Amino acid sequence: MESKYHFNFEELKVYQKAIEFGELVHEQINHFPKIEDYRLSAQFARAADSIAFNIAEGSGSSDASFLNYLRIARDSSMECVAATTKAYLRNYITFEQSETNRSLLVEINKMLSALMKHLRNKKS
Question: Where are the alpha helices (DSSP H) in the chain?
Answer without folding.
Answer: 13-29, 40-59, 63-89, 95-123
